[in-house]
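User: I'm putting together a small comparison set for a docking exercise, and I want a reference complex before I start. The sequence is below, and the ligand is calcium ion. Could you produce the 3D structure with the ligand included, as structure tokens?
Assistant: Of course. I'll restate your input first, then give the structure tokens for the complex.
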Amino acid sequence: MSKSIYGNLEDGRSRDLEDNTNSYEAIYMNEKTPEMQITTRKKANMSSEQNSSGCRCYRLAVVCLMMLVVLLLAAIAILWFKLTTEKDQIHTSYNNMTTQIDQLETSNYKLTAEEEQLKTNCTIVAKEREQLQRKTDELQKKLFQLKTDINTPGWRYFNSSIYYISTVKKSWSKSSQDCKERGADLVIINSKEEQEFVGLWRRGENTWIGASDRDKEGVWKWVDGTAITNKFWSKGEPNNVGDEDCAVSGYHTELENWYDVLCNREFIWICKKIINM
Ligand SMILES: [Ca+2]
Ligand SMILES: [Ca+2]
């Protein structure tokens, strides 16, 4: 009860004091001198200027902040552009590398194929070399035999062939057999030049040549079975008198000097060996 009374008394005093202060200030303001009023106005103006300066600072801060935001956005845009460009470049580089890898794989495939082809060619060349070596060996043997034949008495060389003329007389069959034993055949005359060569070398002797119609009358063939194309029969020959089946060169001295005789008659003979190099 006493506290309530005391509180009311305190509140009453405070309100009185405040009312008195306001009264004093009003009196004081009313009683101000013009200088004091001017001073008061200046203070008010200064306060207003301070408020105006604060606004400008605030605006400047906002502008700076906006500029920072713009710069930040610009930096982000530039960075994004660079990243995009680099990404495109990396993608392009990747595509180029992929293309190069494909090209390298294609080149590798071609090189592998070429390597296989070269190996095949090497194998073929090796086989051809072996064949050439065998042919060279055969040619050397033939050359050796040819030198031996040419150096043997009775042999002569004419137009890629060598010829042997006998010094004894035998029948057509024995003469042919002798030629075979020498690796040759009774002479086969294929040209006018060869006919003239035989005519000069026999020196007027009658000599067996490799033509007969023993297999079929009237069908004259050489000893190798080929048909007679260049025929140098004497006039009226072959006439097959008494079954004449073997040919002799030398009936006359003219170019056409062949005639048919009985095969068991004996004459010298000429063998011919063709040189196959
Ligand atoms: Ca005949
Ligand atoms: Ca005759």
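Residues 34-150 form the longest helix (117 residues). The domain at 156-274 is CATH 3.10.100.10 (Mannose-Binding Protein A; Chain A).
User: Thanks, that's exactly what I needed.
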